[in-house]
Structures are given as C-alpha cells and as structure tokens.
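Structure tokens please, single chain.
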Amino acid sequence: MGLLSSLPPHRRRGALSGGYQWSFLDVVWAVFIVAVVVFLALVFTRARGDPLPVPGAASVRVGAGVPPCAASEVDLLPCEDPRRSSRLSREMNYYRERHCPARGEAPACLVPPPRGYRVPVPWPESLHKVSGVGIGLSTVIMHLARQYMPYGKIAERKGHQGWMKHEGSYFIFPGGGTMFPDGAEQYIEKLSQYVPLKNGVLRTDGSYLIEVDRLLRPGGFLIISGPPVRWKKQEKEWGELQAMTQALCYKSITVDGNTAIWKKPVEASCLPNQHEFGLDLCSTKDDPDEAWCEPFSTYPRTYDLIHANGINSLIIDPVSGKSRCDLFDVMLEMDRILRPEGTAVIRGSHDVISKASQVAQSIRWNVKVHDSEPESGDSEKLLVATKTFWKRPLTS
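Here you go.
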C-alpha cells in the first residue's frame, strides 16, 4: 500500500480498479501504428496479388471473376456503338465512322450469349452445314434476295441448283455448280451501276492504297486481281494505279493477265519523292500505336479458334520497349469474338503466359499451360484455353 499511496489520487483510483487511463499521446501513437500496419499490408498484398498492375485490370484480382455485361449487350461492338455515334457530328458523315471508347471507358465485363443461343456447328463441318434452329428469319432474307438481286438471272439460276437443303434441324449447303455459267461479266457491269467505286484513286487521292500500306508489313505483297488491271476500257485507271504504287515505293513483281503483284519495301522508304499525290512520311510526333489496341469491328461469337503467336509484341513494342496494350483488354476482346466452347492458343514469354493464365481464369476460360516447341529454346510457353458456355442469370 505504500506504493499506491505515493500516486496521485486519479492514478490511484485507476490502479485500484485494474484499468489504464489512456492519454491523448497514447491514442495518437496507437492510430499511427495501426495506419502503418494497414499500409504495409496493402502494399504487400498488391505486390503479390495483382497479376496486371495496369489501368484496364484495376478491378481484376487473382481469384476474382469478371462480371457479365448487361443482357442488352449481347451484340456489343465497342467501336460501332450507335448510342455513341448518335451523339456525334453529322457533318461529312463523321458519325458513321468507327469511334472507339477511350482507354478505361469500356466496361470490364464479359459479353453474354443471347437467350436461346446454341453452340454452332464446329469447323470443318461448318463449311457446308449450319443449325436451322433459331434462324427462321433466313427464309425471309432469301426471299428478299431473290426479288432484289441486281442481276435477276442469278436468283433464277440459283433456284435450280439445289444449293441448300433442309435436313432435320440443319441447313446443308452441298456446293458444286456455279452461279455464273455464262461468266460474271454481266453481273459485274450491273454492280458497277450501283457501286461505281472503280479503283478509288481519282476520287480519294489514293487513300485506299495508303490504308493498305499502313496494314501491310514491310516486305509484304499487294495483289490486285480484276479491274482495273489490264481491264478493257479502264486503261486510264490502270495507269493511275501503277503511278500510285510507284509513289508508295512499291516494287512491281509481275503482271499476269488481270492480276498484278507488288512488294512493299523492307528498308527505308523512298519518300518523300516527286509525284502527283503529295505523299510523305508521317511526322515523328505521330504515335504509330495510337490505334493498336482498338477492338475489332467483328461481331461477338464469330471465331472457333484464335491463335495469338508472340503476344508479347501486343503488350510491349519490341523496338522501343514502350507499353502498347493492356493484356487484360486484349484477352477481354478475344473473349468477345470467340464463340462459347471455342479455343484460344496463346504463345509468349513465361511472364506473359503466367499473367495470361490468371486473366483467362478470371474470364471463365478453362486453361492448360504447356512447354513450347524445342526450337523456342525454352523461352516460350503455350497456353491453350477453352471458353466455357455460360449463361447470364435471368433477372426477375
């Protein structure tokens, strides 16, 4: 009791009651320690648990599934969305062009199959056979096609060829024969009255070929077969086409009949040069990867198989080392255009395949990872995944 008697009265009461009186400084220190512990826990969890620390995958974590999109998004085409186009300018039909959502704007969700969807006939049977269930509209389309074909004899001759048969729940396309027993010249001439595009050089200043050049890899081949290549009454257009390929520095490989082949140069282009089209190299300030990561103008559930070879180059520019696409966004787009029970084969480095495997599981794919071929020198892995056939839960 001698010790207790030496304490102040307020401390003596606390000691006798067995409690501890917290001071303001004690509370501050406790809050600080808790904050430090929470901060370290968050940093440690992110370093180990986030497979793709990038904007598009910010909401995806290991073990977390990507949610389905709304039922109204079964036919989603991100860059062909009429809801976005309706808010754009009508001048020069600007609203009719592709307009993709900005990075981070597209919802991170899986496009669901429509109600009543059935897995289509797999390849190669699908070459001549389709399911007849749920496509009753096709009979209406065929009827309209017979009435409004630009060249009437096609519909007349097509009806006697037995080109389509109905067997059980399938439509069978036997093949054989031709729609043009007398040649297609009349059909092409008729089409030209409705679609007078010719080769597009005069009216577009070669913009079509400039776009082809953008898509074609260095050393690739451009093959044009048909008009205006040595086509009767199109000598002027043929000359302009040749002038345009020369302006693009393409090398003429051969002209055989109505088929012409050019090769795109591998080394530095001959641009700028003296020609009538005013072509020049793009500015070094232009981003060559600006449209690299845009979604395709492809309907959902189109492909049976997607083979992504060297997916590393989609993620990082092999020359500059700069980041290109978010792996999560790439695989989300693959899921959109891959049909249920379709297969994706992805080749890449060990690190990329490890991340791809984690993303694949989050988008409901069944995944197997294999060693690549011996020629790869153990530098690659092979991911083989199957998209599962899931259905969006019905809402009451």
